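Protein modeling request. Please complete all fields; requests missing the sequence field cannot be processed.
Requester role: graduate student
Desired output: 3D structure, token encoding
Chains: 1
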Amino acid sequence: MSGEGISLVTGATGFVGGHLVARLVESGARVRAAALPREDAAPLAALGVEIARADLTEPGTLPPLFAGPVERVFHLGAICNFSTPYAVLRRVNVEGTERLSGLALQAGVRVFVHVSSTSVYGPYRGAPFVEDAPREPQDDYGRSKRDGEDVVWRRIAEGLRAVVLRPCTVYGPGCTDGAGKAFSRPGSLAAIPGDGKQRLSNVRVEDVAGAALHLAACDEALGRAFNVVDGSHPTLEEALTLAASAFDTRPPRLHLPLPLIALAARAQGWAARRAGRIPDLELDAVRYLGGDYIVDGTRLAKSGYRLLHPDFAESMRDLGRRHRACGRA
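Delivered output (329 residues):
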């Protein structure tokens, strides 16, 4: 094990969090993985990391996370969907960040990496989003992530050594939720939303974890935000076709007008609320499909980080090879 202090990861049982924990373990770091009291943390325990039970909405559960020499905090703990109302999102994404960042400041951690989202930018305005673009979110999730960022910016002014990451649509091995699932597993999407020419911004999960580790070690990154995106910007139709090829499924050919997709999302949302779950098709997510959504990753590249999966098409071919290898195992 490395002689450095503990690396605390919140949201460790999540999609990105699990990949980050694995990368930290590979590097020899001492890892403390925070998980909710009833979450299944067995896969993390199998990696040999310390499991710490905590809840961002329960202040009394958080101070033990900082016991011992905690050197780095990777804050991924959040509610990440477009269906939860702001009042609920705020308790975790804003107030939870307030509590955790305050404790990190008191503990004098070397770096606090806050994972936000490009949803803070809001609707596309015709030019690639750079980190200094106005943050004008169009949905409750984006507003909660913006407000959580504002907590971190205030903590930075108070002396917290922090970095803000803004991943776009994250996909890759193990993704089962969010827009990225369409590019991460076999699916049965029957139609292409709209004309399919909308350009997308995606990033493979390994690169979110890699960027977090890279920036945590980069003093020049402190006090700054970084978009995390692969830069290839396929069209929606190209991306869905590549995913179908990767997972040996039939590519969608039918195009459905976005108003019909929105109606379907409303119906799914109504049914999901009655069942107490998050719908597969979320109305606020559909609103992002009205045109291009292009995020600029120049700042991250200039920091010295080199993407593991810079090209979406080649990344999908890689996922396809993995999928077929698993099928033969």
